[in-house]
Amino acid sequence: xxxxxxxxxxxxxxxxxxxxxxxxxxxxxxxxxxxxxxxxxxxxxxxxxxxxxxxxxxxxxxxxxxxxxxxxxxxxxxxxxxxxxxxxxxxxxxxxxxxxxxxxxxxxxxxxxxxxxxxxxxxxxxxxxxxxxxxxxxxxxxxxxxxxxxxxxxxxxxxxxxxxxxxxxxxxxxxxxxxxxxxxxxxxxxxxxxxxxxxxxxxxxxxxxxxxxxxxxxxxxxxxxxxxxxxxxxxxxxxxxxxxxxxxxxxxxxx
Length: 255
Known about the structure:
By secondary structure, the chain is of the alpha/beta class. The chain has helices spanning 2-13, 43-53, 68-77, 90-101, 139-150, 176-187, 199-209, 223-232, and strands spanning 19-22, 29-31, 37-39, 56-60, 87-88, 105-108, 127-130, 157-159, 165-168, 171-174, 192-193, 216-220, 236-239.
């Protein structure tokens, strides 16, 4: 009886939904390992069922260790029905911002992400873009980004997300947010976040899907970036118990 009541409540809560935003890392798969990652049990089939249901679907990720093309190819190899056109990611959004504002970035990003910025002028940098650089987060590289920022009259720091950590197959890893905070503190500057949980990022994904926020649900493993960001945009949101989810880390302001 309790299960029936729970199912009825969930059905009522989800009434009127026409689209879903899905996080990828920690929801569909855990990255890392020799194969580039491991699908989470049932996730590939869940994507197929969502698509067959007629709901609109958008993959909304803060992935910045590879270009969208390379990332999608990896996911396809893991059995997921996904295309580049279905993915909203921070790097393309950052490139649009850089062009609109005439900014020339110093890049502190993963080597595999650099091709996303191929058409961006990077001479004489007047801003810093930081992403999940993984092994590129050496002292020398972070300090070089600091030197660029501190040498600017009006420092501009653009961060491709602000996650604290994420899960790979061999455990939790520090995410871009930790390094973003270090640069903020050292240079007394507030980063502009391009990616989740920024409202503009969710709005872009919704526009690409053609669904208003009140008719969409975000599904992710990050209580702040996924759930909190979506709720601030007017969406409903669900936190899965996979990926970085930890039962002792909750946020009382989110429901």
